[in-house]
Protein 1
Amino acid sequence: MSLPARRPHDAPAFSSLRAVTSAPAATPRALPRDIEAALWRGDQIGAPVTAVVPSGFAALDAELPGGGWPCGSLTELLQPQPSVAEWRLLGAAVRRVVAAGQTLVVVGPPHAPHLPGLQHLGVDARHLVWIPAERPAERLWVTEQLIRANAAGLLLSWLPQARPEQIRRLQVCAQSCDAPVFLCRPAAAACEPSAAPLRVELRFGADWELHLRLIKRKGPTHEGVLTLASVPAGLESILTPRLRQPSRLIAARQARDTLHVVGSPAPRSPAARAPVRSLAAH
């Protein structure tokens, strides 16, 4: 069986196809700056379009999108026990906001704010608004109204029972807010879905340090734990070098107690001591 001969007009078609396939790919044009800022590539730490507030910890800022706490967005702080470490984590950001003449608004904290401690952070009572909402519905409503009104320089709200759809609603509202919004929630909420772009699991250590795990951020997954030195402002000037590391003192005491138990003779039972007492009586 013989193949048909190639027609003369077929040659230009093959040559043009060869020319197209061998031509170099066109270089994509640079995007406008605002579009480039809004574009997020999954293998890079995102740069938010809105402003950020530095956290005061260089190691943490290096892992946060934009280099600080995002404004116009929700940030969840998850910890086993509320009102323990969030003030130490947010102290530098609160101080910066208050120094700019803005207001710190606190909604539904488990305990009343400790004014002397806040003064050590640089917070003047005139720039503090405390709303002691108790019921979950009240906390949620007050938080949403403050976000909508853009009425705070920094908003810190405790919402331990918020549902995912409620968090999503707050995130939509927060996109038009100029302030950073922090929601304090229990550590168990880390297993729940959340629309908050930034989620941080927070624990404190024995040596006054904070242990952070970035559960969710705009960028690649963060592996490991961030350890931040954070001595309370009221104790920083009076703690001795030994008291700055209580874990060493605890370990040394436990070692001494263990050595004493191992080196001491075992006590005899009453039955073993009874014949001695009876012989002494005779």
Protein 2
Amino acid sequence: MERRPPDASQLGPRRRIAMVAHDNCKADLLAWARYNQDLLARHNLIATGTTGRLLARELALPVELLRSGPLGGDLQIGARIAEGGIDLLLFFWDPLEPQPHDPDVKALLRISVVWNVPVACNRATADFLASSPLLGSEYVPSTPARVSVAARDDVR
């Protein structure tokens, strides 16, 4: 029997995937993205400046471009996470190089944990997240109790 590609109703939900890579990690993220191009094509991609331009050119896929990381792009992604606008973060950051925007890097990682957003900081973790059956299912992550209380207090 001939195998046919699934129709759109069988692909599962479109996730909003944010992608960020520091200079020494861009080649690694690009290689991972090329390998996973078919998977990424089924989702909405958002990326910081240079990383996003490279991804769009290499993959020929639409990528929503934000500012460069040091110019506020990391903070833009963090704000989207806090607003519920990012489902998955691929952040290939360089732990061996000092970054001029290191406080922004830490803030992005922190807000991802606060809002329970899955984060991959290297290819191995990205592979595990990409191969998870939850990526294509109707999975809704829980909101940590401490966030629910804080969010409730914010609106008072």
